[in-house]
Predict the 3D structure of the following.
Amino acid sequence: MWLLPWSVNSDFYSQYEINDQVSGFSEKSIWSLFNAKRKSTHEAVSIFRFDIRDPTSPSVDRAKQSLKRIKTLRHPSILKYVDSCENEKSICIVTENVTPLVDYLEKASDEFNVTQREFSIAFGLLSVAKGLSFMNNDCQLNHNNINIYSIFVNSSGVWKIGGLECICSVDDKPPPRHECLDEKYTPPEILDPAKARHPGGKFAVDSWGMGCLVWECFNKPLTPSSSVKVVGKMPKTLSKHYNRLVQTSPKHRVSPMDFIKSCNDDDECKFFKSPLLDTILYLEEIQLVKESSEKAKFFNSLESELESFPSDICKNKILPDLINAFEYGDAGSPILNPIFKIGKMLSEEEYQSRLVPCIIKLYTYKDRATRSKLLQQLDSYVGYLAQNVINDQIFPQVLQGFMDPDVMALRSTSH
């Protein structure tokens, strides 16, 4: 547990249980990053801390800028603000619990197969592109600091944009980056103003950053010897579209979202047409789907697809969306099989907190198909149910099944 640096403003810090510092992060950022937990709710959070050693340092203004922006920029692709504290010694920002992307990708290399890793990267890059589109177009802001060290991943596998200390209006000149970041992250027209004679779109700086990020997802973090023109391990079908992000002339760069669209318009490039992205998009729009037969077909096929998806996205993104779709989207009983399949990925603690309350609620439904599915799956979850829950909340519903005139429901009950 981390104790000594948190003595100032003890009222604020007493709300959190501060755990270990994330190693290596402060070498590439003005911030130090800590894992923590809010004591009142036991909610896991992240704390970004900037120590004010020299009040005249430009980094102080950058840290204050970051705090200002994270409070006001609200978007699913931007790091979620929770709390903050500012005094003469430090600036602290509390956010949703996240992992630096550089650490997440290293872990993914060990835990995911090739398909799962590419699905995760596609999902993440799409999220970043959406966030940059929001900033560039809706807010008229440039991020100016997109790279592997400014992107974070939450428990749902969603990539979040952080590193907001270099944001400026699209009409202003970008401020200098952190001195520890390699020069490769800086667009050519900023290093050499002569190359800015033919200016590009307002997104040009962030397009270069997006290109660096794409490169780093398939290779390693950029170093002085790296070249964004050498695609390395990047899929060939993706590389020709990637090259439009890192054009030397800003005039010829495409926006991050146009990069995604150009990939989707290319029949040979399937990178952003993965079953994972199709699943997430379908669940987000399921209330617009009218036909029950279409929903049933989707959920029946989803069960077999789940094994190819990253487990964190299944457990923390898809599972809540499935439960929500069942309760509010009129998804019907076919959705239960993929729900229980994801249940097999959960730890006992996760199962108790996420699925058991759902199962108890499902037993109150009078729909015969739902009851039949629940009873067919009984062996997969009965071991997670407390005896009093079985006696008081489950068994009475099973007894009702014996009185059901529907033949299939009765067979399921007596199985």
Summary: The mean pLDDT is 90. DSSP finds 17 helices and ten strands in the chain.
